[in-house]
Design brief:
Helix content: 40-55%
Order of helices and strands: HHHHHHHHHEEHEEEEHEE
CATH class of the largest domain: Alpha Beta
Number of strands: 8
CATH topology of the largest domain: Multidrug-efflux Transporter 1 Regulator Bmrr, Chain A
CATH architecture of the largest domain: Alpha-Beta Barrel
CATH superfamily of the largest domain: Regulatory factor, effector binding domain
Strand content: 15-25%
Strand order of the largest sheet: 1-6-8-7-3-4-2-5
Distance between the termini: 52 Å
């Protein structure tokens, strides 16, 4: 029987999801076309074409960008790590190769990036600058930070706790513009299985990249549902888990337009209180459907993994 185009797309997406996981776990290793195509069980030629169709980037472009962006995140959150350690951790042959590639992305050396305030190099801020909007001066910036601290104090309940292991079913997507579609696919899969019934249904978003350093259209996310019992996945839906760990948990009741402000404030709280982000993915867990809330508010917990 012939395979439909939709079935083919689903099969390809499942294989590429395996590749995403393999790449993120092996950024210091061999991520050549020959090696990675074997993970997806494709020929190198076929894999190259499919990967670029799904991601909009060649494998080499994707891997290089991910390595540099992960390194940038470390520069922001781990001041003690040396440039040599970073270049080795993210698969560069030497410091000069790492520095040269880093400059292509951010316009400055890794050392200069670390010395400047991280917001200076935000992808979003770069886009605003190109549109002619000036960055706030120092006094205005301090005022923004102070206001953000006050807003967080008024709107968030924050605690640091050990979170138990969470089992998830997920649909992955690239780009914030595709997250709603990913959730639609997940809910369509989960509904006939009875996973959307009851008061304990929890949807979640896992962020594999940071909007601080990755362009919004390239951020990879997983639209997820927390599983309370074992189930089997099929189609584009995959199964994964978040290991038990220590997290800063910020509980909010906010409008959909306040998510960025909430994340920024929570990371500011992390820095102000001396915590260091762990090398794991932040995520959100939703406790309601904001469309059913009388004030249109989301009841949501934000999780930042810390050491």
């Amino acid at each position: 029987m012939a395979i439909s185009e939709n079935e083919l797309h689903i099969d390809y997406q499942k294989r590429i999801n395996k590749v995403f996981h393999f790449i993120s776990e092996n950024l210091d290793g061999d991520l050549s076309l020959e090696t990675v195509s074997k993970v997806a069980s494709f020929s190198p030629f076929h894999f190259h074409r499919i990967f670029k169709t799904i991601t909009g980037e060649t494998l080499n472009e994707y891997v290089t960008r991910l390595r540099i962006e992960k390194a940038a995140s470390v520069l922001i959150h781990r001041k003690h790590m040396s440039i040599t350690e970073l270049s080795q951790q993210y698969g560069f042959s030497d410091n000069s190769s790492f520095t040269r590639t880093f400059k292509k992305f951010y316009g400055v050396s890794p050392s200069a990036f670390r010395e400047e305030h991280p917001h200076t190099f935000s992808k979003i801020r770069q886009l605003k600058s190109k549109n002619g909007q000036a960055y706030p001066d120092h006094e205005k910036y301090i005022c923004i930070i102070d206001n953000l601290k006050k807003w967080i104090a008024m709107n968030a309940k924050i605690e640091v706790r050990t979170t138990p292991k969470l089992n998830l079913a997920y649909v992955s997507c690239i780009g914030s513009q595709n997250l709603e579609t990913a959730f639609s696919k997940l809910i369509k899969w989960a509904t006939p299985k009875g996973l959307m019934q009851g008061e304990n249904v929890k949807l979640a978003t896992v962020y594999h990249d940071s909007f601080k350093i990755t362009a919004p259209e390239k951020v990879r996310m997983s639209a997820s549902i927390v599983l309370n019992e074992p189930t089997e996945a099929n189609g584009e839906v995959g199964l994964t888990s978040i290991a038990e760990g220590k997290y800063i948990v910020g509980s909010f009741e906010i409008g959909v337009d306040a998510f960025e402000k909430s994340w920024t404030g929570l990371f500011l709280w992390m820095n102000e209180n001396g915590y260091k982000k762990a090398d794991k993915n932040p995520f959100e867990i939703y406790h309601n459907d904001f469309r059913e809330h009388p004030g249109g508010k989301c009841i949501v917990d934000f999780y930042i993994p810390v050491e």
